[in-house]
Amino acid sequence: MSELQTLAHLQDVDLQIEAELVTLRETDSALGGDPAVATARTRVEEMREQILGLERRLRELEWDAEKITGEITKDEERLYGGRVRNPKELDGLQKDLDSRKERRRHVEDDELDILTSLEARQAETRAAEAALAKAEAVWQERAGILRAKHARTTEHIQALRDERARLQAEITPDTLTLYERLRREKRGRAVSRIDRSMCLACRIALPAGVVAHVRQGRETVFCPSCGRILTL
User: Fold this and answer.
1) Which of 149, 168, 187 represents a domain boundary (last residue)?
2) Shortest CA distance to 117 belongs to which of 170, 51, 162?
3) What is the reported pTM?
């Protein structure tokens, strides 16, 4: 294999390394987490927080009902205990008792509403938890595939780098320096192959003399259009 052919092979290896590094970055990013799992987990957390809020509100209503019931008991003891005989005071006690009973009915109605909402939220939460478990199972399977892909890609990159090191050793320092400079200037493609007298990099037809010089292989020949190193 001539030095120019080795250079072309080196470029192929470099391009493969670049592509594999992109794959590795994409795999790393994908392994950062599944949006579907994050969304499902957020939904479950929101539902659980709503349940906690409803449970707190229910306890408050239960305490209110208990307090009002205690007040009603005291009012009834005073109203029916026989110690109060004044009609006006008795009338006031009756009104207070009726008012407290009305308040307790409202509290009990609110309790019923909260219980109904709580049962609905609990059912929704169970469904959300099931959806989360399913999303996590799907993600675990996908994550396993991604980890295997990551390992294969990493192994391939190392093999390519070993191949690159071997090829570099076969290329003279001056040619390697030229290659690296052109590679930076030409977006990773310092070398262009010729196919039917055409530079494959810029798709320009090459003069016959240029192609002949490349065939002779005695010197480095550049494409007169794109400036890349030409090889067969």
Assistant:
1) 168
2) 51
3) 0.70
